[in-house]
Structures are given as C-alpha cells and as structure tokens.
Amino acid sequence: xxxxxxxLRSKYLExxxxxxxAPISGKSLIPENxxxxxxxxxxxxxxxxxxxxxxxxxxxxxxxxxxxIRTGDIESxxxxxxxTFFEMLGNWSLGDYFKQEAISMSFEFLTxxxxxxxxAEKLSxxxxxxxxxxERDHESARIWRSLGIPEERIxxxxxxxxxxxxxxxxxxxxxxxxxxxxxxxxxxxxDCRPGCPxxxxxxxxxxxxxxxxxxxxxxxxxxARRNVDTGMGIERTIAMLQGKGSVYETEVFVPIIQxxxxxxxxxxxxxEGSDRSIRIISDHVRTAAxxxxxxxxxxxxxxxxxxxxxxxxRRALRHGRKLGIEGKFxxxxxxxxxxxxxxxxxxxxxxxxxxxxxxxxxxxRFLKTLKVGEGEFEKMLPNLLKNPAKVIPGRVAFxxxxxxxFPLEITQELASExxxxxxxxxxxxxxxxxxxxxxxxxxxxxxxxxxxxxEMTTRLHTATHLLHKALHLVLGDDxxxxxxxxxxxxxxxxxxxxxxxxxxxxxRVEEIVNEEIKADLPVSxxxxxxxxxxxxxxxxxxxxxxxxxxxxxxxxxxxxxxxxGPHVEHTGVLGRFKITKEQSSSAxxxxxxxxxx
Length: 597
Prior knowledge:
- The chain is of the alpha+beta class.
- The chain contains 18 helices and 18 strands.
- It has 3 domains: 240 residues, Bira Bifunctional Protein, Domain 2 (BirA Bifunctional Protein, domain 2); 109 residues, no CATH class; 148 residues, Threonyl-tRNA Synthetase, Chain A, domain 2.
- The strands form 4 sheets. Strands 1, 2, 3, 4, 5, 6, 7, 8 and 9 form a 9-stranded mixed sheet that branches. A 4-stranded antiparallel sheet has the order 12-13-18-17.
- α8 packs across α10 and α8 packs across α12.
- The longest helix has 34 residues.
- The radius of gyration is 27 Å and the shape is globular.
C-alpha cells in the first residue's frame, strides 16, 4: 500500500488520539506569538504560550497538523528538495509524559505494521552529546536501547544538531532526539552519520524535550514542568515512504506539475533547466495559494509578509516566461492546489475567489512592470551598444531592478538578444549596498516598529508612548520595552513583566492613557545626547541602535522617551484607547495589542 499525504495525516491523528491526545486545529500562517518571524515556521509556534505555562483548553496531550512557511532560502527552491510551504505533524505533552513515553510512541508509530511499518533495522537515532553547560542525554539513549536500537545506531551529536533553544534570550529549552531512516545508499566515508548531506540518512522525526530554563546569566536550571514538542514533515516523509527521489514526485505536486506542463508544452523530467523552473512555479503557486487563502490572509505588498507573497508570485511568473508561457497563468495551477488541499484546509475552498483574484491582479501589476522596464531598456540600448566591451554595467542593471522592478534575469535575456552581457558582479555589489542601507533603515524603523508613517500609524505610535508610561505607573519600574510593531490598524507592544496582567491592571492602564488623551497634552521634541536624555528621566532602550545625538519626545509632563518619531502634535486627536488583548509573548515577556477607537 502506498501511503499518501492524506493517509499520513489521518494515521498520525488516529495513533495519537488512541494514546490520549486531543486533536486540535492547526493555526494561521500569520503568527500570533512570535514577533521575530513573518510566518509560522514550525508546528510549535502557535503553542508557545502553552509551552510556557498557560493551560490549554484541550488538556495536556495534544496532536495536530500545521501549515508552515520558511523563506530563508527562497533562491534555493528549484532543486529536488527545497520548499517554502510545508506541513508539519506534531504531538505535544504539556507537563504530562516525558522522554520514556514520547520515544516509545515515536518508535511504535514508525515501526509497527499497524502504522507506518518501517523496519526497525533501518532506524538510526541521535541524542544530545552534552557540553560544559548541560549533561549528555544518557536517558534518551537508554530508552532507545531498551526498544532494540543497538549502540552502533545511536549517535551523540553536539548542540548545533540536537538542541532546541528558547524563543528569546531566556526561557524553556532542551535536548532533542532525532530519527533517521537508512536509505541504503553507501556511506560517503568513515565519518558518515545521521545528518550527513550525502543522502544516506533521511531525517523523519524529531522529539524535543523541554526540561531546562535558560537563565539571564546563561546558566540552565531544571524545569519543574517539562514539555515534549515533536515534529514530522509530511512532504519529506511521504517521499521517503513512497520510495521517491524527490518531494516533487509525490501526489501533492504531480497534479500541479501536470497543469504547468499543459500550459507550457514542456515535459517534466527531460531537461534540468526546465525542471527547475517547473519546481519553482509549483512550490511558489502552492505557497501563494496558502498565504492568500489563510484565515488571516495577507495580500501582495511591499512590506513584510505581503512582500514575500509578491516575490513568490513574480518569481513564478518569471519562470513561466522561461517555459514559453506568455501572460497570466498561475490561476490554473492554483485551482489544482485548492483541489488537492481543500479537505484538510477548508479555508482554501472558502477563499477560492480571493486567491484567484489576487493572483490575477498581482500578475497584471508585474506584467505592467515588465512592460515599463522593457521600455526603459529600449531607451538605454543605443548608448549601451556603443560600449566596445558590449557589457551592461552592473549599476545600470541594478537601476532597472531598483527603480522599475525589472529582474536581472530579464535584463540578461534582453542583453543576450542584442549581443550584450551584464556585469553580474557589479549588479551584486550594488545590490549588496542596497541591502546594507535597507538593513540600517529597518533597524531604525524597528525602534518604533512602524509599518509606515501614515496618519493612523503616527497616532498609534504616540499612544504607544502613553501606554509605556502607564504600564510603569501600574506595574512598576521593572517594566522594560522589548519591542513594538505598529500598523495603521493596531499597535503591538512587548514588554518585560513576569506575570499576566489582571483585569483590574488592564482597566487601570486604559484609564490612565485615556485621561492623558482627554487632557490634550502637547507633544514636543528636542535633540540632545543619550546621557543627557537619561539624566532628564527619558525612557531609552535598544542602546546600540541610537546615535550620538538622539530625539527626545515629551508628551506634556507625563511621558519622555528617546524615539525617532513621528508623533502627533497634541494628544486630543488620538481617540479612545482600547486594549484588545494581553498575552504571553515569550518567557517573562508580555504582549499588548491595542487600538484607537
């Protein structure tokens, strides 16, 4: 029997429900509990508050499947293995069972004929080797031996391989134990082991044991309440179980690839160049459909998650051109994605019209961009042809990219048609300088965490200063800002405070802020040194991001804070301040979301 993705999802849930786990719904791709990422990148992200101690309404044993996106290596997508979107299966123990039960259940699900039926002799495992801070994980190794895994197939690996770190600088963490299937390929050398890139060992599962709490001084203390957090990737696992050489050969991709073949008249599997483009389109249209169809779906834009979405759609369209597909075409493959995943993810079917409409609009925008860019190229062409070296300077290619959104690959295509080449090294240097400037700009923006400088964002930014001061008055001077994120719709403020705020504390903070808004206090700014600002009592955090001279914004006599701006001129224009949510963000860090009504 060939196990499909649908089969694996069903079996996993069935197995863990039989072990007393409550099935819970996977969450949005847009994370609630992690300000450091644009998308949910792992199955544990939606459960962070419960891993940190909040009681889960479904109990202490949970199981789910979660949609995830990782964008760190978009440019690597196109080979047989990389993906941006993937599904993660997970089971969880929130202060209930620990290593013995977790490892035993993993072994049973993998090897029992009733479940996956993988021969136990093909299984190798890794455990944490220990270091000067945390001891070797002998317990996990002992459990694996008791289940029949011999010593020679148990590997102790260092922290970079077998350790799950905390969400922030401090917090719950611990060793993990990973399971690998021996593919039967010969070892690449005497040091070949699980995790080796040669392909002999295929990672199939990971059990994380959160048994330590990393302290502010860098030491590790044992947790009184220990958790288990596990993960199994669906795409990679079914590829392995089906004996496929690539995730793109499984039933979750083959229908998408066939749709692209029909549009392009190019057959998959005959030419690596065309295969690469087909994989990119298949992956990117699948990811774009999931982002657009998500419960909190975002739309293409130039910021954050919307920018990633735009980049994926435009890269897919560009590779369609390489296959000879002219104009818009992504709606057809997207329909196939919705058909494949509509049952496990009903939000895709529910949001079908939005997915197709936004794909269509973004493709139209990009095609217009290409038309403008091609026009600019034609204007430059006479002077470019005069260059005896027949090389388009990198700075010129980058200007086409930066000003008109014209991809380097298309500049190269047009250059080739006219007997020219492009100075790619010069383009990369210009692009690198642009990235550095963007990085600096992003750091400056993060001081205020502003999405833009619109009127509404500016009002919410000013309200954040009032909130910060009010929190000090209500909770004490130990409150410390840990970050903020402000859009035209709402403010998000992270701050150090060890305890959940009570209803009375939340109400009092709201009252203080609204009192200062009603007082219509003037907002003023002066430039001074950081030391002088602190002597005057101004709040100032993220020291390394400030220059020698700083802006200090004062709101009447109520608040004084080092900040880059912008702010309103007086508080009376803000409207009524309302806290919509107070929750845990990470260990010792609380998060407030608020709006101006």
